[in-house]
Amino acid sequence: MPSGLLDGVRQWLAESGGEPTPARVAQALREQGRVLGDAEVLGAAQQLRSELVGSGPLEPLLADPSVTDVLVSAPDRVWVDRGGGLELTSVSFPDAAAVRRLAQRLAAVAGRRLDDARPWVDARLPDGTRLHAVLPPVAVGCACLALRVVRPRAFTLDELVAAGTVPPGGDRVLRALVDARLSFLISGGTGSGKTTLLSALLGLVGAGERIVLAEDSAELRPEHPHVVRLESRPANQEGAGLVTLEDLVRQALRMRPDRLVVGEVRGAEVVHLLAALNTGHEGGCGTVHANAAADVPTRLEALGTAAGLDRAALHSQLAAALSVVLHLVRDRSGRRRIAEVHVLEREPSGLVRTVPALRWRAEGFVCERGWERLRGLLRGEGDEGRRGSAGAGAPEGAWQ
């Protein structure tokens, strides 16, 4: 149907305040002096309804269970990620104005403002989908949309082994890590699968434990019977009502957590997290952006310094609070995998560094010089029965 005709129908519906039902679309077409068949009227109604209350042309992509990300950079440039890297789709918008309308409507659904005065938004839609949008002139030429699809359920650890994220036998190390109540961080770049892996590991936590999640955007969905989810909130248009991740971590500490989880450590909350892990909250965990596991102490140092914690204090708390770093990468084929597992070690200078313990190989993890320390951590926590069942005491060859 011509875009000019659809624009006229949109205008008529907006002025009359009517829903885009087939009857009202037919009436709007008659008002413009056009008479169409039933199939054309129904097609116009479906298109308008999708645009007004759905995700427009993106709806089929978001409904595809294999899609993790949908990216729009121009009316005819819509990309998806199905786990193997970005693919250009045949989906398109009529023009840049249609992309802008969709971005603004999705932002409104999330309760956020998106206009010329505030040309970007980062929000979560009611179904859990994460939305990021930027309008022109900040985005040159066309509004840009990024939608991160949240699965209705978390992957299991067995599924991650089957997908190649965890190498064969590596699931025994991860189960032992959770069972031993070691504190850990999952590091990696954007889209490397940090949240996916963390959700799977939280699903291994004993049913009798209480998990309290603090997140900027509620993306973690562990399969666990006792989860408390806290989500930050931006200030409203009057500048009131701001709830930061730092606020959430402070509140979480008062909620009797057996496992305190910070979805992404990215600011001043690192101070409260490290303090919590040093005051009896074993098994705490979270994610952090870093280029490599070896860069995690430096990354945390930068965040702690910005929050007013000096370098020596940060490293002192870090040495006592954190035990393991799991680092994820995305290879050139788009596959997400655990590239390395590091343990933390304090140098004579007092600074903390990470030491490689396990390294990725398709046949199974390869042991590095930090393996003995990691094995000692896994075996040194918990009762004797748990040590025997975790598989962490196996000789080095069992992990290769």
Automatic annotation (TrEMBL):
Subcellular location: Cytoplasm
Keywords, ordered alphabetically: ATP-binding, Conjugation, Cytoplasm, Nucleotide-binding, Transport
GO cellular component, one term: cytoplasm
Pfam families, per the entry: T2SSE
Presence of the UniProt keyword Cytoplasm in the record: yes
Similarity remark: Belongs to the GSP E family.
Name this polypeptide is given: Secretion protein
